[in-house]
Amino acid sequence: MLKNIKDKNYILKLRKTLLYSRMRQYFPMSEEEIVDDRNSLDVVDALTIDWPTHVEKPKIGIVQDRGPYPKWTKYCRFLEHNSFEYEIYNIHAHDWIERAKEFDIILGFFRSEFWHLQEMQEKYFFLETYLGKTTYPSSGHANLYENKKLEAYIAASHNLPFANAYVSYDKEDALHLVGTLKYPFISKIVPASGSMGVEMVDNPTQARKIVEQAFSRNGRRTFYNSFRQKNYIYFQEYIPNDGYDVRAIVVGDKWGFGYYRKVLDGDFRASGMDMVEKRELPEESLKIARQVNDIVKSPMLAVDMVYGLDGQYHIIEFSPTFLMRQPDQTLNEGVPGYYVFDDGSYHFEAKRYWPHDLFLSEFLLNHYLPKRL
User: Fold this and answer.
1) Cα–Cα distances in Å, from 219 out to 150, 160, 212, 216, 229?
2) Distance between CA 284 and CA 276 in Å, rounded?
3) Are 202 and 184 in contact (CB under 8 A)?
4) Over the Cα atoms of the chain, what is R_g?
5) Which helix (H) or strand (E) holds 250?
6) DSSP character for 300?
7) Chain-centre distance of CA 77, in angstroms?
8) Number of domains in the chain
9) Domain range for residue 79?
10) pTM (2 decimals)?
11) pLDDT tens-digit map of 163-216
């Protein structure tokens, strides 16, 4: 058993390395497909919302995401349960502009690879700005998705408890940072998820090599076959911590939930390692997530943070969406549910919904509807 665990941990670490990604270039994986899991979603009740009778319900176009844990199927279930008209909308096709005119709302997240993000950001901006459509995510939140640099700018300008981040598009400035930052620190690329492109920088020699490669004519190779880190660096303070990160998720000003992710032995990363622990969340983590979303104003926001050895929480990243494999994202003494914000604090309630129901409820009732009243 112990050997199997060690073997698994070794594979998890290996999959996050640049060497592994280069090996995969010679053994390419097939593209992920559209998965329909609607027949397996009724393990929990659907959330019912109260829509005012004097306001016409919007017609919604759903963008299908790919992969084994789809969001679009949960959207369909929620909309059907609440009697909203919707159709599947192929935003990737040549006639996407004409088709968009049929809908009031375009709904759906793309995948996190940079070519998917570029399409989503470009088209959602167009839909909002030139066709007057409402999108979820909004074009602003689509631009925030997997954009660590933008997260750092927001955190710095609003004095959030964010692990110090240093973004530079100037080579001389980046080399100056190499000589002044405290080691070790973390280097990241944008975009990336699941700890891909995240590495510990232990000394100035290693840091200088990153800078020289990133600002070279061809840029620095990454785990993406067709994408290089070019003319920028993202360095972030390393926070010694208790061996976990906390993902605290808030939905509007009412709901909260989340879980812990354990760091592998001999590593510093928790994201993407599949070592999730669902137990009672510290209220302070939910309040910090709420503080961030008071600025970002997303229907849902996931905030990843670590509890430092200094006794403080430090935000590492935040995102307007994340991968959800099952409805129960939080357990309190083994009981699934959500934290509800009331009278200045959170209390736990044993409720079971797909989180997507909460996001859509918040989006429709508190983001879309007020503009129609």
Assistant:
1) 21, 32, 9, 5, 6
2) 20
3) yes
4) 21
5) strand 241-251
6) E
7) 22
8) 3
9) 38-144
10) 0.90
11) 999 999 999 999 999 999 999 999 999 877 656 778 999 999 999 999 999 999
